[in-house]
C-alpha cells in the first residue's frame, strides 16, 4: 500500500459560507496535490496556494520544515497577491526536490495546506534476476508474477511475447489488478519460453520489460476435474474502505476444471446501475462511490462440481465540513475521524502550531472548547498519519463576540388575500395583534388575508448578550398586488435546530449535541441510550449564529436495553511467537444501555475448517495462547449486558505473534558507484521465512583498512535501515581508498533475522583532504619560505603537491597565477625567490593523488623592503623520530646550544646555507660524556683558537719536561695521561650542542641552489623548515613537518662524518 487507507473527517456544524465583507479566518481555496511530480517533458511546475479571508491573507512557505522564501530565488516565477509560485523546468530540478507547506494567515488565524512533496522521478527498472522455468502438469493452475517496479502512476501492464505479440486472454487466462497473469488451468498449448511482462509509465514515456519467463506444461492422459477455488483474493472475507468519489474495484480470479464462471451479488440489494463487470467477469467496478454503495458484496466462482465464495465488506465515508460558527459561552466540539491500517495517529494544531491546553480538552479524536470565547476563534488542523502517509484537514472555528445584526435575504411579491409570512427572531409581537396576526414559536410573524390597511412599516427587534438590533421592512399594497419595496428579512431561527442532552450519572452538567432538525420542523424523534437519566434543551442556528438555548426539560430516564453497538478499533498484535493479543476500544459508559456489560471474544484460524473459540471477559483485552507463529485469524467482539446481546459483530482479520526471520538475503552484490557510494543488491527473503510482517532490510558495514595499510582491523559497525519490500539500497558516506565488509539482514516486528554472508569490497581512490598546516616561515626582500604538513587523510596514494602564488597588492588587479607541481610527497617546504620587494603575495597549496588534487589552503605574506637576517627556531630529530623545536636561532652568532638531548642517540639537525634554497643536515652522536663535534666544527674560529692554545700549552709542558728530564726528574704514567688527553676519545663522551653556521659557504652534496618551475623528488627532502616561535613537538604523520627518507638520511650522515674526519686528519 502506498497511501493512507483512511478518511480524515471533521464532524462540525453544517459548513457556513460567510460573505467576505465579514471578518473571517483564512480558508485554503486551492492547493497543489500532496505529491507533485516533475515530469521531464513539462515546461513548469506550479506550487499552488490560494486562500480567502478578511483581512486578506498573507502567505509564507516552508521546505523540509525550514522557512523558504520564493522571492529570494530569481529563477522562480511569482504571482502577485497570491501564495503560488512556479518552478521552471530548466533542467536542474533536483535542488527543488523536497517537502513544502504553505501557510495563509491574517490577524485572526492561520490555515495550512497538506505537505506537498515535489518529486523528481527516476527511471523505473525491473531487477536483474534469473527466472527458473515453471513446470506444471496439464490442468494445474499457473501464476506468472510480474512485480512491476515502483514508478509514477498511472501504471499500465501488458503481457506479450518476445516479438511483441499480446498473450490472448479469456475466462481461462487473464491478468489481475496486480499485473500477474493467471491460468485457471494450464493446457499444453500454454507451453512457451517467452512470456514477458511490460510495465508502461506513460507520464514519463517509459516502458520497461521483465526477463522472459518459460512455462512447460506436461501433458497427461488423465485430467481430473475439480471444483473451483480462488486464486485471488485469499481467504473468505476482506474489507475495503473508500471515500466519497473513489472508484471501487473488486476482483475474483478462480481456478478449476471446467474453467469457473464468476458471478457478483450485493447482499440484500441489487448491484448499483453504475456497476460494470469487466475482465471476463472477474472484475466489479463502481465509479464515483457514495455512502449508499456501502455494504457487503460477494463473488461466486462456479462450475459443475461446486462453487467458491469471497465476501467484501465495503464502507464509504463522507467528506468533511470545515466551518463552524458559534457564540460566546457555548461548548464547541471538533471531531476528527480517521481510519486505516495501521490505525492512524491524530495530531491537533491551531493556526498551524501544536495545540496547547487551556479551555481546550482533547479526548482522543475530539477537541472540546468549554465556554468558548472569542480568543478561541482559529483555524484548527487535524493531521492523521500512519506509515503509509499523512492527511490534513482545516476547520475554521469562529466564536462571535460582536453582535452582527440582521440581514436582508430575499424579496417578496404577494397578491391580496394571500398569506404574508414575516420571519422574526424576537418572540414579542409588540403592536402586531389580532386574529390575522400569528407569531409562531420559532419567531415567525404570519399575516393572513393581507389587506390594504396592513400597509405600513414593520420592525423586528432582536437582542442577545452582546447587544440589541432592529430592522425595518415597508409593506406597500397597490391595487390587486402587494409589493415590498424593500427586501423582506428572514430571521427565523433556522436553517436548523440543535437538540442537546445532559445526563446525571457520568458527565452531569455537560451538554452534548444529540440531533439536528430542519428549521421548518417543530418536533423530532430522538434515538436515546438505555438506562440514562436525560434532560434536553433546544437552540436555533441561522447564518448569523446560534441563539440562546431553551430552558431544560424535566428529567426523563430511559429503561435498560441490550447494547446497540459493539466495540470498535479492534487491534490484533503478537508480542511473542505463540501468543496473540486482542485489544479493542471499550464502550463508553453511556453506551452500556444497562448494567452488567461484558464482551464475548470469538476467534478462529482463517482458511481452516474449525469452530469458533469463545471467551467472555469484562476487560477490553484478551490474550490467546498456544497459537502457531504468524498465521491469520478471524476475530469478532460482541457486547452484552443483563438485557441481552448487542448486534451481530463484524469480523476482523489479524495475525498471531511474530518470530524472528529464519533466513538471510541471498546473492548479495556490491556495485561501486563512486569513491564514497556503493549500491547493494540482494535477493528478497521468501515470505514463508519472514515469520511476521516484513519491516524491511538492514545493512551492517564496517571498514577493514585503508588500502595504504596492509593490516586489517575490524572498525566500528555502522547500520542503515531500509523499510519496506525492496532488493537494493544505496550506501553513502564511505571513505575512499578503503576496504569494507558488509552483511544484509531482514527484520520484522520481532527483530532482525540472520545476516547474509559477508561481502568485501574496495572503494576507489579519491582526492586528499586539505593540508592541516600551511605557513610562511621566513620573509626577505625577494624571498619567501613556506612549509606545510601532509594531509591527515590522503584518500589514496599521495603523489605530491600543487603550489600556486600570485601578486595581490591593494589594487583591483591581481598578478598572474604562478603554478608549480611538486612531485614528491615527502616535500613539506619550499623557498620562492625572485619575488618583488615590498609586495603582498597570496600562496595556495593543494595535495594530490593519482585521481586529482584536493581542496586548497591559502596564506598571505608581504616581502620586506631590505634584506635582513632571520631568527628561526633550531630543530633536531632523533633517528627517524619526531622533529623537536628549540628556541629561536640568533643568526648573528656562529653557534647555537640545544639542550635536553638523550645520551647515546644520533640526532639530525638541518641548517640552511646562505644563498641556498634548502637545508643541509648534520648528524650528531651523543654519549654519556661530552659529545664530539662533527660536521665542519674544525673550521670554526673558536675551535682553531682553542686548538692553538692547547698546542702552545703542550709545547710549554714538553719544554718543561725536557728540562726536568735533563735534570733527571721522572713523571708517573698517570700524570702523562692527564697532560696528554685523547681528544677523539674525549670528544665521544663530552656533552656538547647542535649548531649550524650561516658562514659555511660550501654546501653539502645534493643541496638545492634555487627553485624553478618543478621540484624533483630527489631534491625535495632538505628544504628549509620553519618550526614556529615556541617549543613544540610535531609528529611525522602529517601534523607538522615531514620526515626525511631513511635512504637519504644515511647518505647525508655519511657525507657529514667523512668531512669531519678529514678535518681532523
TrEMBL record:
Which GO CC terms are listed, alphabetically?
axon; plasma membrane
Q: Where is the composition biased (Basic and acidic residues)?
A: 548-557, 982-992
> Where in the numbering of this chain does the Ig-like domain appear?
26-113, 121-214, 228-315, 329-398, 406-472
Signal peptide start-end: 1-15
Q: Does ATP-binding show up as a keyword for this record? A: no
Location in the cell reads: Cell membrane; Membrane
Pfam entry (one): Bravo_FIGEY
Gene Ontology MF: a single term: cell-cell adhesion mediator activity
Q: What is its main location?
A: membrane
Work out whether the entry's keyword set contains Disulfide bond: yes
Q: Known SUPFAM superfamilies for this protein?
A: Fibronectin type III, Immunoglobulin
Q: How does it sit in the membrane?
A: Single-pass type I membrane protein
Q: Where is this region: Disordered?
A: 545-568, 982-1028
Similarity field: Belongs to the immunoglobulin superfamily. L1/neurofascin/NgCAM family.
Q: What is this protein called?
A: Cell adhesion molecule L1-like b
Which taxonomic lineage is given here? Eukaryota, Metazoa, Chordata, Craniata, Vertebrata
